[in-house]
Structures are given as structure tokens and as C-alpha cells.
Design a protein that fits this description.
The complex is a heterodimer of chains A (154) and B (194). Chain A has 154 residues and is an alpha/beta fold. Chain A is 28% helix and 19% strand. Chain A has a domain at 58-145: Nucleotidyltransferase, domain 5. Chain A has a 5-stranded mixed β-sheet, covered by helices on one side. The mean pLDDT of chain A is 84. Chain B has a domain at 59-193. Chain B has a 6-stranded mixed β-sheet with strand order 5-4-3-6-7-8, covered by helices on one side. In chain B, β7 (181-184) and β8 form a beta hairpin. In chain B, α2 packs across α3 (120-146), α3 packs across α4 (152-158) and α3 packs across α5 (164-176). Chain B is elongated, with a radius of gyration of 27 Å. The model of chain B is unreliable at 187-194 (pLDDT under 50). Classes of the chains: A alpha/beta (154), B alpha/beta (194).
Chain lengths: 154, 194
């Protein structure tokens, strides 16, 4: 008796579940990431630190960026580190007013505002000290010096 | 004549994966992973009418000076970033033994004075080392309470105070070893951050 050889199955990977997998990835990224709300006008390369703590309540956080203006804005703002808050480059003395505005937005949680200082590692302390004094004037005392873990690049 | 059986209506889903891929790539490009991490500090409140110039015994102050060339002067001697953590641990847990260091953890103050020309990166590295020292002390202390070894990474997790146990531990450690790091202003007065 001659055995009829079974035809070998096509060695193809079933791809019917691919869309589902991709969608899962998509949802993961949608949930775990936040859209960048502000366009950065200054270059900020965060310094590294080991004793890093996370900020728990995102809703309480306002950001101040300090760094040298990006190349395309250097005609307008120069090359020295500047302060950016909410899409605009500001002077140190304007910080207090803008922080108070941010505090107003938080209503009853105003005194819990956390200022996240994203300062370029090559910036000088002078500008940081100025901002710090302004924050004290505005009574926004919780500050987070944003920094990255030694092994990550972000 | 036999009627052909109707085919069940189905949407062609073969390009679904492509569409999902496109969306995925869009989100990958336009978003940044939230990186709200850093060193939490509490600035001293501003009270202009009563200028506090608390007299602090010199032995209780561990002073770090950073000049505009990013050179360190630690306790009036040229120093390195590498020595800070060890010094802090010695300073805070001295309990009056060494006359150059503090009387008690309560009294110990760390003063970091920067010049306006100091690079931010150096300041933050120093602050990071100081906090590393404190965190190790607190981690040890919590380890004593908990009866097992607590690493600094573990301590940082405890400091988030997610559970009641962690909250109690953290409060106890904070009370025992208050972190008093002062950012001395180059020009006017002293400011103590708790």
C-alpha cells in the first residue's frame, strides 16, 4: 500500500492577530504618554542625579524651562540661557506674576503647587537663584529640580 | 437553476494592521514619556518683616562653597564631590563626638553656597550627594525599625508614602533625621530649606 504523503502546510505565520497586537501597543502608548503641551523654545538637557523622586500629582505641576534658546530663535533671544514658561520667553521678574496666575488656576489647591524646574545642565546658578527668589515671592515653595537617571538619556 | 448562495458580507480588514501601525507611529513621534522626576525641595518661605538670622553653632553647619570655576570649598578646605556623602553621614550621626561635626541630627545643617557663575549641573550634583547621604542615613534607620536591610532605592519608594506602613516609617525617619539643607544666598542673608 502506498502511503499518500500529506501535503506540507504552508510555513506561514498566521497574521490575523497582528492588528490586535498593534492596537494593544497603540493603546499602551496612548495611555502612558502625554502630549507635549508646550513647544520648547529653549534647549534643555537635564542634569543627572541619583536620588530621584517622582512627582505624584501631575495636575499640581507647572513647568519652568531654563536654557539657551534654540538655534532658530537665537536672532531674537540671543544665546544666553533664558526662562521659558507657557510657550513664551520671559524675564526673571515676570516669573512671580505667571506663577501666581498658575496658582489661581488650581483654586483651593493653590498652595500645593509644584514648580518643576527644567534647567539645562550648562546654565549658570545666577538665573536659577533669580527664579528661586521669584518663586519664594510668589509663595510657590514646592520645587522639583528635574533631572534624569544616570543611565537614561532623556 | 440553483441560486448561488450569498456570500456573507464582511469588511476587508487586511489593512487594519497598517492603519494601526500608522497611528502607533504617530503617537510614538508626537509624545514624550512623562519624565516628571527630580529632586524635590521645599524653599524657605519669605517673610520680609522679620529677618531671621538664627545663630547656628559653627560646628553644626557643614558648609559647602562652590565658586564660579566650579571648585568646591568644603568646611574651609578644598574638597571633592566624592567626599560629600561620607562626610554628611559622619556629620549628621556625630552626636557630639567629633568637635568638628554636629551635636545632634536635629541641629545639623548643611549649607550650600553657590556663586552666580556656578554651573547648575555642579550645584545639582552636590545637592544630589548631600541628599544621598541623608537618604542612606534614613534608610539605615528605617532598616532598624523594620528589622531588615533597606536600600536607598527602597527608601525612595517608601518616601512616596503609598501605604500606611511606609507613611509611618517615613515620618519617623524624617523626624529623627530632618534634612536641613540651606541655600545660602550670595548676597543677602541665609535661607534654610527644610
Amino acid at each position: 500500500m502506498r502511503l499518500k504523503k500529506k501535503k506540507k502546510a504552508d510555513p506561514e505565520i498566521p497574521t490575523s492577530a497582528l492588528p490586535d497586537i498593534i492596537f494593544m501597543l497603540l493603546f499602551f502608548f496612548m495611555v502612558s504618554t502625554v502630549l507635549r503641551e508646550t513647544e520648547l523654545l529653549v534647549d534643555v538637557k537635564l542634569p543627572k542625579a541619583t536620588q530621584i523622586e517622582k512627582i505624584e500629582k501631575k495636575s499640581l505641576v507647572s513647568y519652568i524651562y531654563i536654557g539657551a534658546p534654540q538655534p532658530k530663535y537665537q536672532d531674537k533671544y540671543g544665546t544666553e540661557p533664558r526662562i521659558q514658561m507657557n510657550d513664551v520667553i520671559i524675564q526673571p521678574r515676570q516669573v512671580q506674576r505667571l506663577v501666581l496666575k498658575e496658582k489661581d488656576k488650581l483654586k483651593e489647591e493653590a498652595d500645593q503647587i509644584i514648580m518643576s524646574l527644567k534647567v539645562d545642565k550648562d546654565a549658570k546658578m545666577g538665573i536659577v537663584i533669580d527664579v528661586r527668589e521669584q518663586l519664594r515671592d510668589a509663595d510657590a515653595l514646592r520645587v522639583n529640580y528635574s533631572s534624569s537617571k544616570p543611565n537614561s538619556e532623556l | 437553476m440553483a441560486r448561488k448562495k450569498r456570500e456573507t458580507a464582511g469588511v476587508n480588514a487586511s489593512s487594519m494592521a497598517d492603519i494601526a501601525f500608522l497611528l502607533l507611529i504617530f503617537f510614538l513621534v508626537t509624545t514624550t514619556i512623562a519624565s516628571d522626576k527630580g529632586l524635590n525641595v521645599l524653599l524657605p518661605p519669605k517673610n520680609s518683616d522679620q529677618k531671621q538670622d538664627v545663630e547656628i553653632n559653627k560646628r553644626n553647619v557643614y558648609s559647602i562653597l562652590i565658586n564660579s570655576n566650579n571648585e568646591l570649598l568644603i568646611e574651609d578646605k578644598p574638597g571633592r564631590i566624592g567626599q560629600i556623602k561620607r562626610d554628611i553621614k559622619k556629620h549628621v550621626r556625630n552626636y557630639g563626638k567629633d568637635p568638628n561635626f554636629s551635636d545632634s541630627p536635629d541641629a545639623a545643617v548643611v549649607s550650600i553656597k553657590t556663586d552666580r557663575g556656578t554651573t547648575y549641573e555642579v550645584y545639582l550634583a552636590v545637592l544630589d550627594r548631600v541628599r544621598a547621604g541623608y537618604h542612606e542615613i534614613r534608610a539605615d534607620y528605617i532598616g532598624e525599625i523594620a528589622g531588615r536591610t533597606i536600600t536607598v532605592d527602597h527608601y525612595l519608594e517608601i518616601a512616596q508614602q503609598k501605604t500606611e506602613e511606609h507613611r509611618i516609617w517615613y515620618e519617623a525617619a524624617r523626624k529623627k533625621f530632618p534634612m536641613r539643607i540651606s541655600d545660602a544666598e550670595p548676597s543677602d542673608g541665609k535661607a534654610i530649606a527644610k
